[in-house]
Amino acid sequence: MSAARDSAVGYIIWGSDGITYGPVGLPDLVSWIKDGRVAADTWIFIEGNNSWKKACHILELQMFFHEKGAPMADRSATSNGVDTRILRRVKILAGLSDEQLDRFVKFMEIIQVFQWTQIVKHGEHGDAMYLILEGELRVRIMVDGRETTLATLGAGEFFGEISLIDQGPRSADVFANYESTLLKVSASDFEKLTCEAPDLAAPILFAIGKTLTGRIRADNKRYHDSVTLLRNAY
Question: Quick check: is 86 in a domain?
């Protein structure tokens, strides 16, 4: 393991050789886990809360430790190592069984993003939906050169779902406020899912539709309240 310095600090690793490495950001740490340079019982210092923990006890890393014998409190995981407890943070996946989640993750990609990374750009044609496992994202538009924040999204929420259907232009920019872990579902992979596993795609589409309905109702209420306010002002 070679010492690493990264502008996106966060974690310091106590190596098996008794040497500390870092600080590094979450994406680099995940890469070291996948390369076998960080084990489940490796001690890691978390700068965010000034504490040491074993890697397998750090929530955002647990999905990457699924090998037999890893000292995890709960080894409930999909076949590719994603912790089902973390998947169920995403509202539209909460009602799926372990078997369904195992099938679903085979059609998606886990991505790690640094703080301030732009995930989607306003006006560009979208080709994927994103589910947020960890972190916080900011949805914004630029008006007359000034930023207007439309929403702040956290773990359990999702965005870009319309791109699964029409691959049209994005309606806003999305940036990572903090280092985040996302699940990316491309339009092509979701189309494959609907063909190969329609019994799985149906409840997910229903959950997306239910969430969108709630958003539309909330928008309609805000519009109604705005019109009422303006009429009462004259």
Answer: no
